């Protein structure tokens, strides 16, 4: 019983995190100071706005290396594309936000 309760709490926390990270539209005016938009997904991209400080974390650096391999440095202005699943990205951001 306790395990399913913990799983439910984690799922709700992940949903709240996703709502707070997702900002509709591609308007750069929606990005608060100290944050940047990233586009996450393999086929379909979802836009998230994350704190710039996350870029320094070793786990995020691994995603940046994947993005470089996949897309190179010449990504279009307006956001960084990251080739991973939204689920993986949300788990990483949840981990980073808890530190």
Automatic annotation (TrEMBL):
GO terms for biological process: response to auxin. It comes from the Eukaryota. Belongs to the ARG7 family. This is Small auxin up regulated protein. It comes from Kalanchoe fedtschenkoi. The lineage of its organism: Eukaryota, Viridiplantae, Streptophyta, Embryophyta, Tracheophyta.
